Amino acid sequence: MLLKLNSIYLKRFYVQSDFFGAPIVEHADVRRMLMTMKAYIEAMRGLVYITAEAIDISTRHPDPGIREPKHELLELLIPVVKAWCTDLGSEVASLAIQVWGGMGYIEESGVAQHYRDARISAIYEGTNGIQAMDLVGRKLPMRGGGAVKDLLGMIALLDPCLLYTSPSPRDRTRSRMTSSA
To answer: Which residues are catalytic?
Structure first.
């Protein structure tokens, strides 16, 4: 709902607003924020779809051999989806406030209310801190870490490079400093 309302307002904003001779949406920083918001929303939506599939299969599939692994995946994903999507939803709403700019536009568009609604969602259904404790204390140790390994295996099927990280800039700097000494 929040996303649909914002897109309606943005279309109107695109036509009505003029900033330095062009509609504000044509300015690079505004486009960057809008594309960031779009990427965040698509990532959240994808994770929610994976979780919804796990709910369906874990509760309705006739084969327990398929049902049980999906239930385990669901248990692992729920605190991640809840916390990550609510935090990112607040970030998207905050970016929307910045896109809309001045107080008149913010109040007219309703984006301030969207931000308040998004912010409170981090508290509903257990705060994100409690979700994090649940993830670390109960979900990650499931099957001796096997559930996480299975999830990482699923990720590796999408792109094996996602499992490997390059050294951080800090590690590269430390390596250069020790090698030159």
So the answer is: 125
Give domain status of residue 41, yes or no.
Answer: yes
Domain count, the chain: 1
The Cα 123–Cα 179 span in angstroms is: 48
pLDDT tens, position by position, 7-29: 555 555 555 555 566 777 788 88
Read off φ and ψ for residue 126, nearest 5 degrees: 90, 130
Distance CA 79, CA 85 (A): 10
Q: What is the pTM of this model?
A: 0.74
Domain coverage including residue 95: 2-140
Query: Could you give the count of Cα atoms lying within 13 Å of 145 in the half-sphere of its Cβ?
Result: 2
Question: Does residue 79 fall inside a structural domain?
Answer: yes
Name the nearest CA neighbour of 6 among 78, 83, 77, 105.
105
